[in-house]
Design goal:
alpha+beta; Aminopeptidase; 10 helices; globular
């Protein structure tokens, strides 16, 4: 009898072990299934949220090119340009004067080369503004006629078409940076800066650090200790830091909050499908981003500060942008004459005008 009992125990133990393994396997499969479902639901939720946000942000702009070589523009396949506008529409600004662009950047995309160029335009650049038919600071174009006037001024100065625009106010910028959990940048110097309420609210300290939205905005806006060009470089640095943070795995769970901020504080003439086209650039990792600047000189001769663009620098930037957009060949650089450099309105729909006169 004892032998019989002894021989049955191992079988019972084996059944118990098999049962435990099956339970563990079922638990693992259930966990994987629930995780997969959660990811799908999160993706659907994000898509729905994104659709609502983009619909809210969409604002068409008359007169923009909608075709390239007779075909509808597809950002995933075509070379395109986007004007990025950072607008100060705070209550303090609104009480005193019309909104102005505090940051103007042009991004050009070349899907074949997987290249992105990012040009920062100094806000005090003295250029011809078609909206009013005279020269002024390019930052004033937006105040004169909104996005349309800003786009026309940029097109005339750079002699390239602008296909899309994205306008973001300061609240949106602060909200996106905060939603990302801050951005990692190097602050070049100590600086006391204002925010929308207090003239001494922001205290920037030098060195590498993580900045929240308010401090990142202060760093992007300040120019008292250097120049408009250096401020443009800082803005490019901050955009790169935001892209790096947004593309990290740790930020995936923050996309919902980012979409909310963008939807409430951005305007654009890009549709959701067109935006998805830009995701092609990230499928093989982040694309190469080349930073461009416009050289020039400070001018106080009129009693008002202007940034006078250097004609050779303008010609060089125009060439780079046109090449990126596929508007000229490598051999075309030698054909750029001094006349073309000083007349950015050549071959544009706004007539022949110099950037200065």
């Amino acid at each position: 009898m004892e032998e019989t009992m002894m021989t049955k125990r191992p079988k019972s133990l084996r059944r118990t072990k098999r049962t435990k393994k099956k339970r563990a396997l079922r638990f693992l499969l259930l966990t994987m299934m629930l995780t997969f479902v959660a990811v799908i639901l999160y993706g659907v939720s994000l898509f729905s949220k994104t659709q609502v946000a983009v619909d809210r942000a969409y604002e068409a702009l008359d007169g923009r090119p909608t075709t390239i070589n007779g075909k509808k523009i597809e950002p995933a396949k075509d070379n395109i340009s986007i004007l990025l506008l950072g607008v100060d529409d705070s209550e303090a600004r609104g009480q005193e004067e019309a909104s102005r662009t505090d940051a103007m950047l042009v991004a050009t995309f070349n899907p074949k080369e997987r290249d992105v160029q990012l040009l920062s335009i100094p806000r005090d650049s003295y250029v011809y503004i078609p909206e009013v038919g005279r020269e002024d600071k390019i930052t004033h174009a937006y105040a004169f006629g909104g996005v349309k006037a800003a786009v026309e001024a940029v097109e005339g100065t750079l002699d390239i078409p602008i296909h899309y625009y994205m306008e973001m106010n300061f609240d949106g910028f602060i909200g996106v940076v905060d939603a990302l959990g801050g951005i990692d940048v190097e602050v070049p110097y100590e600086r006391i800066e204002k925010d929308e309420k207090d003239a001494n609210a922001i205290h920037l300290m030098p060195g590498e650090q993580t900045l929240d939205g308010r401090h990142a905005l202060a760093l992007a806006r300040t120019r008292k200790l250097d120049s408009d060009v250096e401020r443009g470089k800082r803005q490019q640095m901050i955009i790169q830091a935001m892209l790096d943070k947004a593309s990290s795995i740790q930020s995936i769970g923050k996309y919902g909050a980012i979409i909310d901020e963008v939807g409430h504080n951005m305007k654009t003439n890009m549709t959701l499908n067109e935006m998805f086209g830009l995701l092609e650039y990230t499928k093989k990792g982040m694309p190469h981003v080349e930073m461009l600047t416009l050289d020039g000189t400070d001018d106080w001769s009129s009693g008002i500060y202007y940034y006078m663009l250097d004609e050779e620098s303008v010609a060089d930037v125009r060439y780079r942008l046109k090449k990126q957009l596929g508007l000229l060949s490598d051999s075309s650089r030698s054909q750029l004459s001094t006349n073309e450099v000083s007349n950015p309105m050549n071959d544009s729909p706004y007539g022949e005008r110099s950037i200065y006169n």
